[in-house]
Design brief:
alpha+beta; YaeB-like fold; 3 helices; 5 strands
């Protein structure tokens, strides 16, 4: 992936706080790393992309983003059970 500026939507920033309140501690650096070096990359709805990487032994973290000229916008992200999303 080329070096683009990465910006978080207001929704994504709020999601960090919501997950933290539920004792799921993530940070923007981890999310940026997943977008930069995903284990899996797939097409999402409306031309969005979904980057996925292992989060812990039982879960993956999926990051939904859009690519614009010179910028990546993180729309949202969510942890998911590996058994659901790690199928080939």
């Amino acid at each position: 992936m080329s070096m683009c500026a990465i910006r978080f939507s207001d929704h994504a920033l709020l999601k960090l706080e919501i997950l933290r309140a539920h004792d799921v501690h993530l940070n923007t650096k981890l999310i940026q790393d997943i977008v930069s070096k995903p284990e899996k990359l797939m097409e999402g709805y409306k031309g969005r992309k979904i980057a996925q990487r292992s989060f812990d032994p039982d879960h993956v973290l999926r990051v939904v983003y859009e690519e614009h000229l010179g910028e990546i916008v993180i729309i949202t992200f969510y942890p998911g059970r590996r058994e659901r999303y790690d199928k080939d």
